[in-house]
Amino acid sequence: MNFLALAYMLFLALLMLYMRGLKSKQRDLEREVKLVREILREEDSEQKRKDRAHN
Known about the structure:
The chain is mainly alpha-helical. The protein is about 95% helix and about 0% strand. It is rod-shaped. The termini are far apart.
């Protein structure tokens, strides 16, 4: 196997690992966004309850 083919295979393997890392990072970010949305929704509903109690 010549050097160029070996270098190309190494490049593809590293690219696959990089893409896998990006995919897991994307899942982590999606999970964080979901949690933040849930927290904001809870705070919004609490604020609406407080507003109703004052009126």
